[in-house]
Amino acid sequence: MSDDVWLVVGLGNPGEKYAGHRHNVGYLVTDELASRMGAGFKRHKAGRADVVEGRFQPGGARIVLARPHTYMNESGGPVKALCSFYKIEPDHVIAIHDELDIDFGTLRVKLGGGDNGHNGLRSMRSSLGTGDFYRVRAGIGRPPGRQEVADFVLSDYSKTEKKELEFQVIDAADAVECLVAEGLEKTQQRFNS
């Protein structure tokens, strides 16, 4: 059995009001991963988050899936608390989040980098003291016309996008599993389209 422990964080905003928003794709991907693990989220005693503990495959690394209860811009506190509780270093943290600068339906996986204006990443960088964690970036594209970015990310996917969203969520979940099992280079080769 592997002794590795990975924290996989789905970034989003809590509550039904935000459930279908572009900003909540991280929650959708962690839901898919939890389903694959055959488990449901439970409130964690040490952090302001819901978690699922398990493995993606028998004998594989231990996985902690997490969805912070805080709003996006305060995600770092629960992430840091969970890292402390499970003794996980930032190089074993994967953040799943929406990305404006990538077209909808496209994924990018990387290690480290800035926050690119993403409040959830900014909060994580601040709380962890580093940006050296993995990111699975689910493209949502730029807002059409002159729509404000905040209005765009806090709105539901279009009808056309909703038809493709399931495939993006599945691909992102596959990318997380690949990253844990096979490492960054193979994951990038397979998923960075």
Question: What does this molecule look like?
Answer:
The chain has one domain: Peptidyl-tRNA hydrolase (Rossmann fold, 3-Layer(aba) Sandwich). Helix content is 37%, strand content 21%. The chain has helices spanning 25-37, 76-86, 119-128, 149-153, 159-182, 184-191, and strands at 5-10, 42-43, 49-55, 62-68, 93-99, 107-111, 134-139. A 7-stranded mixed beta sheet has the order 2-3-4-1-5-7-6, with helices on both faces. Helix 1 (25-37) packs across helix 5, helix 2 crosses helix 3 and helix 5 (159-182) runs antiparallel to helix 6 (184-191). The mean pLDDT is 94.
The CATH topology comes to: Rossmann fold
- Gyration radius, in Å: 15 Å
Identify the CATH homologous superfamily. Answer: Peptidyl-tRNA hydrolase
CATH architecture level-2 label: 3-Layer(aba) Sandwich
Major β-sheet annotation? 7 strands, mixed
Distance between the termini: 32 Å
Family: Belongs to the PTH family.
EC number: 3.1.1.29
GO molecular function, one term: hydrolase activity
Subcellular location: Cytoplasm
